[in-house]
Amino acid sequence: MIGLVAFSFGLRTSDTEPNPCNQRLGLAVQSILTAEPTEVIIVSQWEVAKQLEAIGIKTNHVVNLRDDGEYLDTRDVWNEAKVLFDKLGIREVVPVANPYLQLFYAKKMVKDDGFQVLSKPIGRIGFDNSPQNTQAWTRNRLAFTKQVIKIVFFGGNHGHYSRQKD
Prior knowledge:
By secondary structure, the protein is an alpha/beta fold. The protein is 39% helix and 13% strand. Strands 3-2-1-4-5 form a five-stranded parallel sheet. Helix 1 (20-35) links the parallel strand 1 (2-6) and strand 2 (40-45). Helix 1 (20-35) crosses helix 2 (46-54) and helix 3 packs parallel to helix 4 (102-112). The longest helix has 16 residues, at 20-35. The protein is globular, with a radius of gyration of 15 Å.
């Protein structure tokens, strides 16, 4: 048995999710499951979970928006996933995230917490450049790179600045 954790990328209002990036992330999960002979326990951020449900894939645990409206980030999703994986004795984990910078960070978190990273092909996830995307830094490569630099080197804020709820 292995674990799979799917991280979303970009955010629209809940009634317009999954956005195109989260749809592609869901399809990447589907592709991985098709090729995986072992039982897979899936933890998914809610946006990708909506896509998984739409294509008939059961998620074992969905990481939902916080009740207080605070930003739900990649670390928060992994923290919930690792609790379940620890409980089930799962040590091998497939992170599914946007390969542009986010996947590197996701793999690092998994590895740093003592789990073995199983790398699987994700494919191109791209960016959601629609005005419906509420996270401007996920609309293109340059904006996302700037945001990552800002957070990593300057400890800048990210998310919705306490406005994640619809």
